[in-house]
Recover the amino acids of this structure.
């Protein structure tokens, strides 16, 4: 009887470990999906703010005080219970730089290109992130990931209402840099320990990003903003920084940069759906087809390893 119990324990332990690992991965994917949903809410919020004559420059600046304060408070609370160390400070600075570059270049691309074309350029991060992870860290994307990326890009072409183009070489360059900055943010965010608390690096990277934005926009030379800009800025900061950064910093290490980018592509369908609900933007049937393709590509690309019979 003792022998049989021991055999059962030996046999069942690997299955338990596999189930535990799978559960952690699925949980991490769901959390990154929530982050993507949060990011997707930014587009209609910014549209509503611009319709109320909120300057984009001040809106970009005003999004930082809330998340910086939130991350600082949470860092202080956690530090009372645990001794905190800032893991890989150089990499954290690069993440803050990449995040700031994404915001600055994306808004500038929107100013020079049609919004649909700017979004299309930003969404090149779906293939840039897995490629960068392969080049920098030797993590080659699986066949399912490559197929998922192809489906996501195809769905993006259908889901984004391009409309008449305003061609601008500089605008295209800004859009490509925005996608590259976002891809680097996702890849570098995955290079930390999954057990390391994300609060200190979220505070440092967000503060650095805010300082870069303030410097680029020369806030000291701007006209005084209307008081309501801080309300809209806090709303943008909640959905663009506070919620998604914590979720991505916490869960990206468990997925890797490539898988994180694939799941994060859910941002586009969310942006389209919320724009339809909140702003009344018309959505064509072909866009819904693109949305379903993107969701299917995310589901397919989330499989880290293809089954043995996949040729």
């Amino acid at each position: 009887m003792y022998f049989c119990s021991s055999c059962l324990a030996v046999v069942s332990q690997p299955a338990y470990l596999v189930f535990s690992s799978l559960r952690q991965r699925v949980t991490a994917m769901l959390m990154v999906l929530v982050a993507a949903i949060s990011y997707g809410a930014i587009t209609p919020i910014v549209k509503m703010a611009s319709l109320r004559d909120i300057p984009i420059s001040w809106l970009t600046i005003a999004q930082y005080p809330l998340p910086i304060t939130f991350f600082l408070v949470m860092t202080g609370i956690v530090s009372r219970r645990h001794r905190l160390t800032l893991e890989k400070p150089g990499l954290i600075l690069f993440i803050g730089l990449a995040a700031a570059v994404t915001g600055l270049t994306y808004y500038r691309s929107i100013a020079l290109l049609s919004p649909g074309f700017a979004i299309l350029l930003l969404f090149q991060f779906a293939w840039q992130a897995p490629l960068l992870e392969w080049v920098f860290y030797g993590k080659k994307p699986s066949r399912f990931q490559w197929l998922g990326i192809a489906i996501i890009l195809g769905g993006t072409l259908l889901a984004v209402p391009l409309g008449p183009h305003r061609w601008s070489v500089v605008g295209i360059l800004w859009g490509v840099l925005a996608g590259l900055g976002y891809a680097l943010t996702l890849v570098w965010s995955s290079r930390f320990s999954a057990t390391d608390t994300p609060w200190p690096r979220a505070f440092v990277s967000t503060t650095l990003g805010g300082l870069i934005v303030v410097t680029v926009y020369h806030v000291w030379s701007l006209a005084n903003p209307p008081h309501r800009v801080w309300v809209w800025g806090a709303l943008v900061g909640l959905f663009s920084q506070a919620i998604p950064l914590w979720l991505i910093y916490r869960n990206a290490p468990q997925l890797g940069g490539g898988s994180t980018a694939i799941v994060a592509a859910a941002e586009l369908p969310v942006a389209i759906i919320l724009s339809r609900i909140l702003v009344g933007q018309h959505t064509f049937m072909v866009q819904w087809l693109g949305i379903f393709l993107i969701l299917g590509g995310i589901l397919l690309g989330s499989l880290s390893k293809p089954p043995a019979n996949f040729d």
User: Anything to note?
Assistant: The chain is about 75% helix and 0% strand. Confidence is low (pLDDT under 50) at residues 5-13, 306-311. The radius of gyration is 21 Å.
